[in-house]
Design a protein that fits this description.
Layout lengths: L8 H12 L2 E3 L9 H6 L1 H26 L6 E3 L4 H10 L2 H14 L9 E5 L2 H11 L9 H16 L6 E5 L9 H11 L6 E4 L6
Parallel strand pairs: 1-2, 3-4, 4-5
């Protein structure tokens, strides 16, 4: 799963894992000690925040390789590529040059996904969902920041071709608990083998 903050990645990833009996691989944003400070003062704490996430991601992938868990199916709520995407949005030019130098030297070797599901939604919808889920460190998110992040995801996936891609219009559907919406999505993704696909379900009334 991928998409900006509030798109529903983790919820959908867990539901798909439960449906198919797959293991999961989740981001651990709550573990980042700089994240709350980043939302309070982005310019001051962006570099520390992004480097922590980069090192955390490398540790996650290293741990999986050591445990030889890549042999079985796994549902993740992130792409490793997102680290660099966030860094480009959050860091100034000099900070990003430093970050990118670290990134390139780490040589993070992530496996190519069998399928990427990109959840799209307008910024006001994302903002509403972020506020509703009530994570304390997210309550100060600037709508302009969400908007810039949303635009960055749009640009990134316009060129993405590392794996089959399903782009989902998640603005007005309930993939968390809505069975009809969810079953439509499952039926769609089971038919995907290659290429780029679009899923624009209409909520049933």
């Amino acid at each position: 799963m991928e998409g900006p903050i509030g798109a529903g990645k983790t919820t959908l990833a867990q539901r798909l894992a439960d449906t198919f009996g797959f293991d999961t691989l989740f981001e651990r944003a709550d573990d980042n000690p700089f994240l709350t400070r980043f939302y309070q003062d982005p310019a001051r704490f962006a570099l520390q925040t992004e480097l922590f996430f980069l090192f955390q991601r490398a540790d996650q992938l290293r741990g999986l390789r050591q445990q030889d868990l890549f042999s079985g199916p796994r549902v993740a709520d992130f792409l490793v590529d997102k680290n660099r995407l966030f860094a480009e949005v959050n860091l100034d030019e000099d900070e990003f040059a430093l970050y990118d130098n670290v990134y390139q030297h780490m040589l993070i070797d992530a496996p190519a996904p069998d399928l990427v599901i990109y959840l799209q939604a307008p910024t006001p919808v994302l903002r509403q969902r972020v506020l509703k889920r009530g994570h304390a460190f997210e309550q100060r998110i600037d709508p302009d920041y969400l908007d810039r992040l949303n635009d960055a995801y749009t640009r990134f996936f316009h060129f993405y071709d590392r794996a089959p891609l399903l782009i989902v219009n998640a603005a007005e559907i309930d993939l968390a608990s809505g069975d009809a919406d969810y079953q439509q999505l499952v039926a769609e993704l089971l038919d995907i083998r290659t290429g780029r696909h679009y899923f624009n379900p209409r909520p049933l009334v």
